[in-house]
Amino acid sequence: MPLFEVFVRSRRGLDHQHVGSLRADDAEMALQYAREIYTRRREGISIWVVRSADITASQEEDAPAFFEPAADKPYRDATYYELPKEVKNL
Amino acid sequence: MAAASDEFQARIDREERIEPQDWMPEGYRRTLVRQISQHAHSEVIGMQPEGGWISRAPSLERKVILLAKVQDEGGHGLYLYGAAETLGVSRDELIDAMHTGKAKYSSIFNYPALTWADVGAIGWLVDSAAIVNQVPLQRCSYGPYARAMMRICKEESFHQRQGYDIMLALARGSAAQREMAQDALNRWWWPTLMMFGPSDADSIHSSQSFAWKIKRYGNDELRQKFIDQAVPQAEVLGLKIPDDDLQWDAATGHYRIGAIDWDEFQQVVSGNGPCSRQRLAHHRQVQEDGAWVREAVAVHAAKHRAGSDGPKAAARNSDTAQEGRADAAV
To answer: Architecture of A1-55 per CATH?
Structure first.
């Protein structure tokens, strides 16, 4: 039985968020199960299910190549810049 | 290998979570499969003692509450089976291990729920004990287990409250109802204390689990925490804890209890509890009775897959229909 990842949108205006995974024979059943398992208490207004096998994920061993280039670019953050105390609203 | 194992422990020591794709020692994987599957089985077997009272609940309100509670237990089982499956075991293997007695479930569910007050006592005592056990597991080093526990803990407090609410109603009721509540407390108190497992000195699984941060508190410590919470709650109900040696120890700020009957615990754990055979037989029966549903769903899915590859089905499942569905989801 294939594995599905479940995403739930808690209310309009927010992103769908990953809430967990489940096994089901097909997407229709996965959606039914997701409703029973993850939204028994008004947790959401919309559910996405996607086969886990269809997700392309970055690999742990690639993490340096993927993410380290961002580490030495602190000037991309607002907090990098020091302002005189008297400057407001910037 | 040494490097991988050092990095693994270093990550745990830094309070980082271990995720399914990470390297982990075989013992860590084995321990987690044992613990998570035992936990999952407990949730599912735990549906039985209370499930029997759904059709006999004393009011419609109590009935829908109990239905929701028992449904939650099934849901908790599914969260946990899902977490166990990330460790490379299949649901069938897990269920089979329970049926053959290789995997255990909590000893508490081998006791019968004889009266309606038992439903109250189970919610109040058993679910309270479960919460005391589960709260630290939210910080367990294995990510999928910790996340399942967060979800479960959030729902578990409803279970505890509805149980206490049943006990309150009975304790404030007629003499017969109070007696029924007291009788349930008498029968469930000691088995609940045994839920935390043997004394730390006698527990075979503890020390490595501490190093791996699967476990963070000792059995005795958690048991004490539960006792300190439950004794005053019993006082509010006006019920008596069935322990003549129970006393408040002002020096330590804890309640001291009498001796636990560990022989009884061993008996129940080794499959000789009052309902042990019945619980497993029922689970097996339900598993067999439901086989045709699982088969039908699999056949339907296979047919659908085969069909959607052909030209006819492609027309039936047209792109517009699919898009309409995606829109509805957004």
So the answer is: Roll (3.10)
